[in-house]
């Protein structure tokens, strides 16, 4: 990708994020005032925060999608906010739609522009995903783990020549666990449900451990390949 094009896309993404945040700030300003007030407006706050309609839901979907599409930008706080505002189930739908939209956008950009220079710096993560015996499972797991940049998973899937329908299925399945935990975690925060917050925390730890397993799997596969190469080299002499 040309440097000017890359900079233009990043600037466009940042401007979009700022604009969407401004709209949300305007729409949620009354709730923010209640939250910062020294008086106790808990009942009014909970009622007001849950009174927002589909317009703000669409803004959240767009914001989650744009943030998902920009490498290095985390949308976890916005995903949790979706759970706070719309409850666990609608919040889950918002998160899935937003994250799926963002990854579809990334896959489109990857197909149009060369990102190999960006990927080379984190090639070990691409190797971790591509060394799965079942490639579809590897892509799904890649999307599941928050610490793996989603654009790397999209890049790997495109390099494997995944059909668009198969990639979309992998995206939806992959973003489902974190979308679920963030939405239910946001709802638990609003309600003060400590048990549910602990469950969400445990779920995030499990996803991190899954990343460790993926990394160890990659090292094992690479070691086996290296050993096979050495064996063939010795045998050929």
Structure description:
The protein has helices at residues 3-27, 29-36, 42-49, 54-69, 76-112, 116-120, 123-130, 135-144, 150-159, 164-191, 194-236. Helix 5 runs antiparallel to helix 10 (164-191). 32% of the residues are buried. It has one domain (3-236). It is built from eleven helices and no strands. It starts with a helix and ends with a helix. The chain is mainly alpha-helical. 84% of the residues lie in helices and 0% in strands. InterPro entries: VTT_dom (IPR032816). The chain crosses the membrane at residues 7-25, 57-82, 89-110, 134-155, 167-185, 197-216.
What are the key terms here?
single chain; 237 residues; mainly alpha; globular; VTT_dom; transmembrane helix; VTT domain-containing protein; transmembrane
